[in-house]
């Protein structure tokens, strides 16, 4: 077995990346399988993709929907996916190494590599993780040109509205030294109006959550127009209030006030933790600081597209290292118990505290899984969205004016 091939092999810097760049998009994993067998002595390998609900891991096969999925929480695969570190399972027939397939904090799936019994792993875990990391980057590139990996994420068919919404999203999680982000939409296979977006530069993080009115494709079209308008304004270098105004004009110009979209738009200064905010509707913001969970009070402004030429203004607050922010749609905090109590009244605080030790990538799913039980088994009347942000800040980040 080769442990870190030298020269032109994949063990050398950039070797596996060169192999993957030369592969056809739908053959990327087959190339990885060949690399693992040829250069690392593996007996075989399997790639499993996280499904849209982030509950199952589905094998990537030449014929989609032909292999059974496994839990994203349990077993060797689930442990590697949840902990985001290699998990080794030894058996009589050999050893399997399960490795997270993740790019910039976005958890795509798990790479499972099998070795024959008695084969020493030695220093292989590092090189194997390098292969998994290279595969993760290449999958994102391949998704532009093939449906192969997108199909593997589905345990059932998406509605057309859900197809539109998932294609609009930047990912489901993201990590940088200053922050960790995680987000989830439910019902994952039939979402329609809720959406989120983020973009980072050297000095700022812009984070948006949206709740478009209506149902089905009409809600998805409304959200798509709003997100595209916000991106257009952001990429033109406009400030936060002007981004909201441009999106407002785009929606009003198309719908003439008959449809509108609620939005919460945040811009974080990575050096200081100062946050600019535009609160235009129903998405709400909660903060966990120390042992206290409380809503962040922002001045409500009009939803986008409701009236012509609405003027938006920015408010400011500051986040501190160790803060956790939860951005929620009304499909979460307004959910009613059988007794008629909104989830956001008391149950949300308990849920936030109960999940405080989970990483942000796992918190949204954990909160959303509580909602059916809180409703008492009643079907949801609205789609739901949770975005979780853990703020780490930069060394020496300013704390003046924190509140």
The first-to-last residue Cα distance is 57 Å
Strand content: 25-35%
Structural class assignment: alpha+beta
Please give the radius of gyration in angstroms. Answer: 22 Å
Side-by-side strand order of the widest sheet: 3-2-1-6-5-4
Q: What would the average pLDDT be, to the nearest integer?
A: 92
The percentage helix is 25-40%
> Could you tell me the number of beta strands?
17
Give a quick account of the main beta sheet: strands, pairing sense, barrel closure. 6 strands, antiparallel
- Form type: globular
- Number of helical elements: 11
Flag low-confidence runs: 1-13, 399-403
Could you characterize what this model shows?
- The protein is 30% helix and 27% strand.
- It has helices at residues 15-22, 28-40, 75-83, 125-142, 148-152, 160-168, 216-235, 240-255, 330-333, 347-354, 363-374, and strands at 44-50, 56-59, 70-71, 87-91, 94-103, 106-116, 173-176, 179-186, 194-200, 204-212, 261-269, 274-280, 284-289, 292-295, 315-318, 324-328, 384-391.
- The protein has a 6-stranded antiparallel sheet, sandwiched between helices.
- The relative contact order is 0.10.
Task: Explain the layout of strands and helices.
Elements: H1 15-22, H2 28-40, E1 44-50, E2 56-59, E3 70-71, H3 75-83, E4 87-91, E5 94-103, E6 106-116, H4 125-142, H5 148-152, H6 160-168, E7 173-176, E8 179-186, E9 194-200, E10 204-212, H7 216-235, H8 240-255, E11 261-269, E12 274-280, E13 284-289, E14 292-295, E15 315-318, E16 324-328, H9 330-333, H10 347-354, H11 363-374, E17 384-391
Antiparallel strand pairs: 1-2, 1-6, 2-3, 4-5, 5-6, 7-8, 8-17, 9-10, 10-11, 11-12, 12-15, 13-14, 13-16, 16-17
Helix pairs in contact: 1-2, 1-4, 2-4, 6-7, 7-8, 10-11
């Amino acid at each position: 077995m080769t442990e870190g091939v030298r020269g032109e092999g994949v063990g050398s810097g950039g070797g596996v990346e060169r192999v993957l760049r030369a592969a056809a998009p739908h053959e990327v994993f087959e190339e990885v399988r060949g690399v693992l067998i040829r250069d690392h002595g593996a007996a075989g390998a399997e790639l499993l993709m996280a499904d849209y609900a982030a509950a199952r891991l589905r094998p990537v096969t030449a014929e989609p929907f032909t292999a059974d999925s496994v839990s994203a929480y349990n077993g060797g695969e689930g442990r590697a996916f949840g902990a985001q570190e290699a998990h080794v399972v030894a058996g009589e027939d050999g050893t399997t190494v399960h490795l997270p397939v993740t790019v910039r904090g976005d958890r795509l799936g798990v790479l499972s590599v099998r070795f024959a019994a008695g084969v020493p792993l030695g220093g292989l875990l590092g090189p194997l993780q390098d292969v998994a990391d290279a595969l993760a980057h290449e999958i994102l590139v391949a998704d532009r040109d093939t449906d192969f990996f997108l199909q593997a994420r589905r345990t059932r068919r998406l509605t057309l509205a859900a197809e539109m919404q998932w294609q609009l999203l930047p990912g489901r999680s993201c990590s940088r030294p200053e922050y960790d982000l995680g987000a989830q939409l439910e019902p994952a296979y039939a979402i329609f109006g809720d959406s989120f977006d983020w973009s980072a530069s050297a000095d700022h993080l812009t984070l948006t959550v949206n709740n478009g009115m209506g149902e089905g494709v009409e809600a998805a079209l409304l959200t798509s127009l709003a997100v595209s308008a916000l991106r257009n304004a952001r990429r033109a270098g406009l400030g936060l209030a002007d981004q909201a105004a441009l999106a407002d004009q785009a929606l009003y110009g198309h719908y003439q006030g008959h449809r509108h979209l609620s939005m919460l738009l945040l811009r974080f200064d990575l050096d200081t933790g100062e946050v600019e905010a535009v609160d235009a509707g129903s998405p709400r913001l909660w903060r966990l600081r120390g042992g206290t969970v409380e809503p962040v009070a922002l001045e409500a402004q009009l939803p986008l597209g409701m009236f012509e030429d609405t003027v938006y203004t920015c408010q400011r607050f500051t986040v501190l290292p160790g803060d956790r922010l939860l951005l929620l749609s009304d499909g979460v905090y307004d959910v009613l118990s059988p007794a008629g109590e909104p989830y956001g009244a008391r149950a949300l605080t308990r849920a936030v505290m109960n999940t405080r030790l989970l990483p942000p990538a796992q918190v949204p799913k954990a909160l959303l899984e509580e909602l059916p039980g809180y409703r008492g088994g009643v079907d949801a009347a609205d789609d739901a969205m949770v975005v979780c942000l853990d703020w780490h800040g930069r060394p020496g980040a300013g704390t003046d004016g924190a509140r």
